[in-house]
Every structure is written in structure tokens, then in C-alpha cells.
């Protein structure tokens, strides 16, 4: 099996500090995070020969053609606009590593940006899907939150999970966000605060839902040869896994995600187990998303997630499994409703020892990053990536 660690490393990462950006265009945010990540790596736009983006990028060719022109990337030898929603940037890291290993490029730039708070987010259009005529009639009036609420209610029915247990996930995220000066929500919440927040779709309260923010981020993946020429700590790409969960003709079990397939593939390629992981960046569109993913990745048994997250398990720096130490999508940032880029950036910070004071994991050597795209209540795709501190 191909192991990207043999060929490529992450060398640059940057998260836009803004959460409300009414005076910036979407292309401008992409450009600012691109320049920031390249500067972090010690590189410039002139060094880039591979460019990766999702359909959050505005313009022609799935966004990459327009953005490449906007950025002045004149010598590209490899381009990729794979679209997988919030998982897209994690797919892109894996695809960039494979392209570098194949000799297609040597400096790959991955960008993501969004303006759902103060503008319009592209990427939601396109031709009608063949399932729309059937599902629209059934789900009329049911929004995204409602389908995640269905998953939460089913998990509660099957395994006895409680709203208070889901609230523990938000509490941990809020504690971490209080250390992040750029976090959208910086107030530390209690379990009581979460369960007493307004109900959005039973059993999910407002505090169980992610924030809506402008912003973005970028990551730079380079060949080992390029990394050796730079004065920057590289991060190993140890293993990756991709997967999709479909509706199975309507026979859909809402108690698991496609992480049940992407996780084992990533662990096998990396040659590690869940017990070896020091830190996790878990996609947190909703609290139920985190709980099911933790189970599906093997950090606890199916149905045990509610008990697993109790007693400060997820709280940095000394919990059993610290998660989303930037505050995650629940409290910090969810640019363009796509959390994969911020999850990757925070994992890089942890492995470099550059996380915010108060949440840095001591001797963090192995981090897991997981992103979702789509809808837990219908069809979804996942990407799991294992990263390591480079020697």
C-alpha cells in the first residue's frame, strides 16, 4: 500500500484570524490564507506547482482555474478540485502527497475559504440530483439540523445516550476556545448552559450546533527534498483513509458514520492504533457528529461514546483524548461550513508545539484528523488522516 510519508510532508499551515469579513471577497480570503501558509513554510506563490481547492473556491473549473489566475500561479503542473464538503481539504492533503510521490509536483498549496456569515457561499448549485424528486417530497421542511437530530435521537434510543453527555463535548470545545483569542465564541459553558440553550431540533440545542463564520485556512504539502531546504518543522503524513456512506436503498442506520471505514484504513497505513493517538481533530458540525465518530474510529465501542466523553476525557491538556483544542467548529471557526482545513491546521500546531497556551498537549507525537462531507442523516463521505511529529 502506498504510504505518503515516504514522499511528502506538511510544511506550512495558516488559519485566517477573521470570523466576520464583510469587506473581503471570497477570492481575497483564499489569497490571504495561501500567502499566510506559504510564509509559514518559508515559501512564496512563485514556488507553487500544485494547487488544490474544493468548490468553495469561486469561479471556473471547480474554482481552481479562476483561483490559480487570481493567485498568479503560472507554472502549475498538477491541479485538483475534488469536492467532498468538509472533508475536502483532508482528501486534498492525501491527493497532494500521492501527486508528489508520483513526481507530478513538489510544492502543493491547499486553500479553503468561506463567507456564509456575511456573504454567499458557492458550491451549493449544479444540476438536480436524481434522488431529489423522491427525497424532497419526503423531507419537505426538514433541514440539515433535523437530520442530525434524527441521528442523535436514534443513538439515544439504541444506547441510552443523554443530552448531558452530548453537552460534555460542547463544554470541552468551549474551554479550549477560551484560550483562543480568535475564537468566535470564547465563553466557557457548563453542561447546564448547553441543555438549557434553545432547542433547535429535538434533541439538539443551539449549543449542540456549530458556529457560522467567515474565514478560511491553507496548508502546504511538499516533497521531502523541498522540506530539507526549509527552516521549518515538517509534519509527517503517516496514513490516510477515504470512504462514503450511502442510503442503502433507504435502509439507513443513523448510529454510525463513514468513519467506520476511513478510520481503519488510515490506522493500517500508518501502522498505529487508536491507543497511540495523543490528540484528535474531529469534525464537529454537531455534538452528535463527534460522539459517533469517536466510536467509529475505535476510541470506544459503539454505544459507549456517551460514557466515554464524560469526566473531562476531551479536555486539554491532560484529558485521556484531548480534541479540537482551538475550540473547533462548535466554538471557534467553521469557515464555509467546511471544517476539514481548521482540523488539519490545529493538528499541525499541536505536533509542532505551537498550540495556544493552556491547551498544548505535552509531548504530542501522533495526531488524528477527521473530516466529514454531506449529511449524517442521508449520505456522507469521510476522510481520516494520521499525522506525526517528524524526527
Automatic annotation (TrEMBL):
Its lineage opens with:
Bacteria, Bacillati, Actinomycetota, Actinomycetes, Streptosporangiales
Instruction: Please report the name of this protein according to its UniProt entry.
Output: Thiolase domain-containing protein
Quote the SUPFAM superfamilies the UniProt record gives: Thiolase-like (SSF53901)
Under CDD domains, the record lists: SCP-x_thiolase
What positions does the domain Thiolase C-terminal occupy? Answer: 252-389
InterPro entries, per the entry? Thiolase (IPR002155), Thiolase-like (IPR016039), Thiolase_C_2 (IPR055140)
Q: Which Pfam families match?
A: Thiolase_C_1
Alphabetized GO MF terms: acyltransferase activity, transferring groups other than amino-acyl groups
